[in-house]
Amino acid sequence: QVRLWESGGGSVQAGESLTLSCSLTGGTFATNPTVWYRQFPGKQREVVAQTTSAGVSTYDDSVKGRFTASRDNLKNTIVLQMDRLKPEDTAVYSCKVSVANRFRPVEYYGQGTQVTVSS
Description:
With 119 residues, the protein is mainly beta.
């Protein structure tokens, strides 16, 4: 059975770091990009970072230079390293991966994890 496990998150002070990860079991990554999202209260979910199957990541301007997204296709795991966190990074973070399927990739979403940054 395919499962996506999201871990990490928590509460930190401004300037500190957190690491989020999403691990897939029971399946393998498709070649589609993996995605990290965040959602602020009362707002739509927004893309924080995307990583291609070749490991090339792109970022929202608000996190460039502070966040690093990576992907391990052998371990079917993605990681979001968040450094120099700011209070405005406080949000619920989640991941999306595409799982290889006989017909076409199937998208799986992490359950979401709260990140709280205090000043």
